[in-house]
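input
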Amino acid sequence: MLELIPNRKIIHIDMDAFYASVEQLDNPELRGKPIAVGGSENRGVVAAASYEARKFGVRSALSGVMAKKNCPGLIFVPPRFERYKEISNQIHTIFKEYTDLVEPLSLDEAYLDVTQNKKGNPSASQLAEEIRLRIFTEVGLTASAGISINKFVAKIASDYNKPNGQKTVNPEEVIGFLEELPIRKFYGVGKVTTEKMYQLGIFTGVELKSKSLEFLEKHFGKSGGFYYNVVRGIHNSEVKSNRITKSVAAEHTFDVNLSSEVFMMEKLEIIANILDKRLKKHNISGKTVTLKIKYSDFTQQTRSKTLPYFISDKGLILETVKELLYQERMKDSVRLLGISLNNLNTEIKKVVIVQLKFDF
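output
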């Protein structure tokens, strides 16, 4: 059944090249220069790149070797996640002065529901401008924003006028905006799905909208219903100030590739210690243990096992990880290992959405 769209006032704030911008903020010598956070010219992957580096095609997840090849003058900087978290907390303190309905997606982006806000300002666009100005004057960084009636459209809009800009998609503009939107820019449509849609003759929102629910479910399964709704401006997901944790993980990229399972188990014990602290901090347990393996050729593999009961004990997690590690022989040396716990004991509560009408 087609649900009615709830007209909320949602702002999506996305910091501009956050990790790299923090490094340039703290070290004036790096300002205006192409920098990459994480990786090196010999190994590793880029975690973030400054806009000066992006002009040369340097992006996150790109290997350090390729990044240096694309940009010979690239400066590699080691990540400082505690510092990024500190800056993120400062930014979120600003958010909370406007609304308690703040849903962080990561350290550098968040949704804000300002339908009812602490400033009593009916204009979400004005609030976004004010928040961005405060981040710049009080923290020293720039942010971009998308403003619309739901999280889906706001997320897409925040990418339109980057860096240091914003875009508002008013209620009456949503359908036209989505119809003209290239399918590759739909949030949640990845490269593989984009190619599949191209093969089906779907290149923009208007072509996606022309397909029936049955057609989309036939070709995309459960995701078909999502695509059917969002292209019609229907996305009822609320901004949740306390997001449900779906997975807890820890991983590490090694300076020297590992070729022995014995050495891998030593590293996995260290990773399990980190995971253990995170589980205890949030009082979380889960049933599914996943071992993540990235080989020296950058191919990735995951091995999982679901237990009949919830666990959080480090010993039990390691026991399962060891079983997964020796499940089959390694096809190559290993550059990254990770452990995650899924199928958690967190409860998702369903709420009834009521349609609201007001001036945007």
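quick obs: The first strand starts at residue 10 and ends at 15.
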